[in-house]
């Protein structure tokens, strides 16, 4: 994948070696083509995708019996083993991790280099804090070569609120000196209308990622449709279960295809928080389900004028800290830019 500079064509980037095994390899260990097509119909396109699916899921595929599902699992094990390994092996695998720039050097510094692949990064905050602007910025930066802080791949953009604007992509592309026509062509966009549609789009993503290199998967926002489709405490348990399934699928895609999954989230006022003299009583939607699924959680809040503040709300490797950034015509940037 290559995005050309408006003035000069960038050097040809060598295609990267993919870390996944395509599901067609099952033919080499006795699985017929018809059964492979059945797996693909359920959104399973890699050997790892088989291991990420339960027996219940496999048996739920039309035409897939328990005996066939067991045979598929055994065949997958012959091709790629996902059992125990050493910590050293995990360390080597983590070297494939990439960090994609947010457009702000200070924000990148806060994150230790940028938004990580192989994980879910949750961005939450009230309106006009820059959540969607970050998504638009990443939709451009994700396509840039690594030396420009990019991920050298296409971008998936699932829009649940109707806030995607191609005009913003043009402005951000101009800032980075790349052809906005090419940038827009490399964004795979879909507008989701229900939480079920949102899940179906996520399942369809795997088919695209097996064919071409993608670096970022954006869902803006991840919780809006769940809040609309499920109302009241009576439906809360079902909503949380469906949300958990969606987030589980998202992290599997992140690990399967080495992409950065970026989701935005809404906030709600917590009356109890104000009573306890909290500085900011707002809290993200999704409860513990969202908290456990997201690898890195970033809280955005308003500052002075167009300035905004990003705080590390939760991370397995980053200390709690803050950085200041700014919203501009060219997307997310530093205050002094």
How does this structure look, described?
- This protein is of the alpha/beta class.
- The chain has 2 domains: 23-79, DNA polymerase, domain 1 (Orthogonal Bundle); 93-333, P-loop containing nucleotide triphosphate hydrolases (Rossmann fold), CATH 3.40.50.
- It is built from 14 helices and 13 strands.
- Strand 10 (296-302) and strand 11 form a beta hairpin.
- It is globular and about 65 Å long.
- The two termini are 29 Å apart.
Concise structural overview:
This protein has 337 residues and is an alpha/beta fold.
Strand ordering within the main sheet: 5-4-6-7-3-10-11-12-13
CATH homologous superfamily descriptor of the largest domain: P-loop containing nucleotide triphosphate hydrolases
In whole angstroms, the N-to-C terminal distance is: 29 Å
Unreliable residue runs: 7-15
The total beta strand count reads 13
User: What is the fold named in CATH at topology level of the largest domain?
Assistant: Rossmann fold
Strand content: 15-25%
The structural class is alpha/beta
What CATH architecture of the largest domain would you give? 3-Layer(aba) Sandwich
Could you estimate the helical fraction of the residues in percent?
A: 25-40%
Q: N-to-C SSE series?
A: HHHHHEHEEHEHHEHEHHEEHEHEEEE
| Outline type | globular
The residue-averaged pLDDT reads 91
Radius of gyration: 21 Å
Number of self-contained structural domains: 2
């Amino acid at each position: 994948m290559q995005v050309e500079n408006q003035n000069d064509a960038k050097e040809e980037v060598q295609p990267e070696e993919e870390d996944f095994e395509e599901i067609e390899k099952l033919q080499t260990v006795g699985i017929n083509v018809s059964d492979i097509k059945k797996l693909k119909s359920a959104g399973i396109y890699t050997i790892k995708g088989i291991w990420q699916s339960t027996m219940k899921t496999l048996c739920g595929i039309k035409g897939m019996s328990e005996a066939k599902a067991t045979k598929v699992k055994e065949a997958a094990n012959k091709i790629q083993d996902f059992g125990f390994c050493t910590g050293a092996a995990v360390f080597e695998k983590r070297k494939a991790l990439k960090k994609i720039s947010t457009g702000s050097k200070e924000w990148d510094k806060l994150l230790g280099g940028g938004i990580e692949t192989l994980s879910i990064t949750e961005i939450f905050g009230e309106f006009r804090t820059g959540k969607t602007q970050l998504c638009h910025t990443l939709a451009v930066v994700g396509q840039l070569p690594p030396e420009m802080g990019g991920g050298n791949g296409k971008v998936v953009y699932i829009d649940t609120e109707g806030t995607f604007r191609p005009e913003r992509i043009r402005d951000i592309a101009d800032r980075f000196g790349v052809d906005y026509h090419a940038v827009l062509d490399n964004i795979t966009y879909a507008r989701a209308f229900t939480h079920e549609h949102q899940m179906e789009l996520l399942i369809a993503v795997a088919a695209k990622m097996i064919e071409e290199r993608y670096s970022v998967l954006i869902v803006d926002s991840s919780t809006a449709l769940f809040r609309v489709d499920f109302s009241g405490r009576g439906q809360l348990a079902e909503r949380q279960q469906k949300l958990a399934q969606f987030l589980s699928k998202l992290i599997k895609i992140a690990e399967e295809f080495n992409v950065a999954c970026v989701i935005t989230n809404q906030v709600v006022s917590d009356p109890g928080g104000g009573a306890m003299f909290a500085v900011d009583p707002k809290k993200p939607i999704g409860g513990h389900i969202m908290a456990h699924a997201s690898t890195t959680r970033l809280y955005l809040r308003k500052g002075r004028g167009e300035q905004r503040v990003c705080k590390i709300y939760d991370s397995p490797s980053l200390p709690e800290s803050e950085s200041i950034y700014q919203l501009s015509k060219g997307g997310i940037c530093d205050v002094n830019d």
